[in-house]
Amino acid sequence: MALPPPDPQFVLRGTSAAVHTLHFSCGSQEPDVPTLFSGSENGFIHVWNLKTHRVDTALDGHGRKSVYCVETMGGKNKLLSQGRDQRICLWDLAEGRTSVTDSVFTENVGFCRCSLLKVAQERWLVAMAAKALEEVQVLELPSKMSVCTLKPEVGAKLGMPMCLKLWQLNCGSQPLLLAGYEDGSVVLWNLSMGKVFSQLVCHQEPVMSLDFDSEKAKGISGSSEKVLSIWSLNEQQNLQVYKTHKLVNAGITDITIRPDKKILATAGWDHRIRIFGWKKLKPLAVLDYHTATVHCVSFSDHKTPSERLLAAGSKDHRISIWSIYTQT
Amino acid sequence: VCFIPGGLDCSISFVSHVVGKVCVHGRQKEILSVLVPRLTDLTKSDCIWQRICWRLVECVPDRWMEAVVLGFVQRAPGADVLSRLLGNLVVKNKKAQFVVTQKMLLLQYCHTTAVLQNLLGYLSLDTLRRALLIKVLQELLETWGSSSAVKHSPPEQQQYISKAILICLSHLKGPEIESCRQELLTSMMEGVKCHLDSNLPQIRRLGMIVAESISSKINTDGPVLKFQYEEDDEVRELQSLLVQTPPFCVVPSLPDDDRNEKADAALPLLLESNKKSHTAAPVMPDEESDAELDSDDDLIPYDMSEDKELKIKAPVYIRDCIEVLTGSEDVDKWEATVKALESLVRKNPAATREVSVELAKILLHLEEKTCIEGFVELRQRAQVAVLTTDPIPVAKYLTSQFYSLNYSLRQRVDILDVLVLAAQELSYPKSLGKTKHSGAKKPCIQLLPGSDSSKDWRRIVDERIKSKTRRFATGQSQVELASGPNEFNSVAGHFFFPLIQHFDRPLTTFDLLGEDHFVLGRLVHTLAILMYLAVSTVAVAAMGKALLEFVWALRFHTDSYVRQGLLSSISSMLLSVPTECLLEDMTEELLETQSWLEDVVEKDPDGDCRRLALQNLLLMENLKKKLRTVPS
């Protein structure tokens, strides 16, 4: 007899706006407090204290325009946030400060979340949708130098880039970019040459979100239709469809694979969070707590497995925190 | 009759006279069925025989020319054969020209498509005759485009003329079209307007097809006119006329009696269907199935039985529905409400009665906010449900709105449809499903070897529905059908009389007797149905009288759809009003109506009107007979 799905461990209230992005920072030792960063539609970034379940700080840096991406850059004192004011802001939060140290004007009015990759000590690459419709720009941070601009060939008709993921096989190897586009295809870009390695049409509708497991060279993408698509990368850097999984209700907003690559979580338009096993995409659980679209899911980076958490932010202004499958 | 071949110089005029006289006496079939095949064979390659044949027909005296030409055109197996047989007769002989270009095309319409093809093909095959072809086309278009012709000529004739136009168009070549382009365009515009104005769907469709064909011929590049209409056999046949096969496709002549059918079979019947190009499927390499070597986990799934499709809940109370439909921005909820409304109304009659008029108002004005399948039907069913739940106030509201300002035609016709559907529902007994628990209403008998306890049958049937039944020892050989009071009785008048009241009072946006004859036609048909459904109600005699006066006022209306409605009203009245009432109160009116009906049977151009009038006369006869057989 299967157990009924668990309830959230706790629920964070207080954003008073739809939550669009979440990012955990729980890796550091005591006395540092495990933290969760959340970006909301009213332009605030809330820094949640996961011990007290309260907001420690609220950051206002995007002119009350929706914040749709939040990432930490090596520890919780440096934060990157992206908002609908067409800016990416870099924050310094050490010692209680809340100041924007730098910002990048992206000139992009879309919703594509940027992707951050640490390539060396104090050097990051950030990929973001550029001003022109189909282009992706890769910058180096903190220097803000452009590394390359990825333009699809004329007539490719890919549409807007919808989601990005920068990755490298291991430290020191070539960084690569996976981009999901409006026409439903996922493209693997070669950053050094600015050319396409491989393109795969995974969906009939825009790719809403994707995530990639570089160890297994397997990735998963979700769209506004009822299908999840799992694809793999072979040695020739070619993308191939591995499997598809049909969902009960259409619409996926976010997919994320847990850092230990055992399970993955999807956030859906049908207000539900689904957990699957990553190996075979076995459906494991359906978490039904929210009363509106779930916009984002994120796994925590706790060092101790048993403390790992899953957070989901929704249009109903709540962030639910779950402790699920923590025994492995 | 056989000809002597050879170089004899014989006079053919005698033969012409014989042929002419035989044809004019009506023996075309006999003589031409032998003559024409022989001549076809003989003239196939032999020029001399061709000239002999031409002399033959040219020498036929004028008074018999029509019969001969008609016979030849009907019997020739193809346009090229006709050309060989008749030569340039139409150019040389005035009478023949009249028969071919005027009489057969414009004054008669009994000929088959094959005959038309022969005739027009014949005209197109020689340069001398082509001028006639263009003249013919112009005259056909004039008739096609004249609004009085569209209104007053029978649909069969209109179809015939349309076919002729299409065949002419198929024969015209580029330069000829260029030369008469402007005239084609003007006549097309005028013609399409009168056709679309008609109430009969068949006429509208003919207009659309011809207009499309003309447009495609004159605009070979660039956008062409395209209408939307239902494709059926008639449409396909008409469209196939636009394409001509080359003459050698025609089946060689066989000594067969029905040549026309052969000619038919030789013509292409269907155009190539548009092959839709399949959109290229997205490139997806085959899925590989990797064998997973390590066993999958110790990750135990949770119970996911609650994971079902997300359904937006519709409101449960009628007043909530009203709120959602009038104000709500939430489109999902709006959709769910529209879908659930009818059943809610039927389940909560008391609650509906409190807000019935408001609900009717909202539904009448409800526009489609999102794309729901079957929106029109859902709205109509909800309206019918509201009307049947609370007939009198809602009927009052709807009939008053029918004659109000600023409604669209669709809304007015909606009102009529809803009234009819509701009347139908109210006048039929309640369905059997409602009385299930009493158990007695099984529509069929099941006999069983049970003998006694006939008193218990009701209870037992309740308990064991599918199992054994009991014999009804009471001797009931038929189960009584479910019966209930006729609910239409109390409200029939409320549906009917307000609709009749203001038909002659024009408003600024609505003039039943003027432009809006489409709505008038629908109104008349609605009244006919309401009359029919009012059988056995108390108000039926008064309704009959009012309806008869209404019909009398409109009996000379020019639109055939309206006239058909008026005649159906009379049928309904004759069927519904009890005979005694008819004959007591309405004798003079009935006599007047009878003479009008006789007139319609003889003189009305529309076939359906004539048929309906004949039916009415028969009904009246039956009434009289019934009276005579009833013992006084």
UniProtKB/TrEMBL annotation, chain A:
Protein keywords: Repeat, WD repeat
InterPro entries, A to Z: WD40/YVTN_repeat-like_dom_sf (IPR015943), WD40_repeat_CS (IPR019775), WD40_repeat_dom_sf (IPR036322), WD40_rpt (IPR001680)
Domain of life: Eukaryota
Repeat (WD) residue spans along the chain: 200-241, 287-328
Pfam families for the chain: WD40
Protein name: GNB1L protein
Native source organism of the sequence: Sagittarius serpentarius
Gene designation: Gnb1l
Automatic annotation (TrEMBL), chain B:
Organism: Sagittarius serpentarius
CC per GO annotation: cytosol; membrane; nucleus
Any GO BP: 'de novo' cotranslational protein folding
Location of the protein in the cell: Cytoplasm; Membrane; Nucleus
GO molecular function: Hsp90 protein binding; telomeric DNA binding
Transmembrane segments: 529-554
Organismal lineage: Eukaryota, Metazoa, Chordata, Craniata, Vertebrata
Gene name as annotated: Telo2
Residue ranges of domain TELO2 ARM repeat in the record: 129-225
Keywords: Cytoplasm, Membrane, Nucleus, Transmembrane, Transmembrane helix
Occurrences of domain Telomere length regulation protein conserved (ranges): 315-423
A Pfam family of this chain: TELO2_ARM
Annotated family: Belongs to the TEL2 family.
Name recorded for this polypeptide: Telomere length regulation protein TEL2 homolog
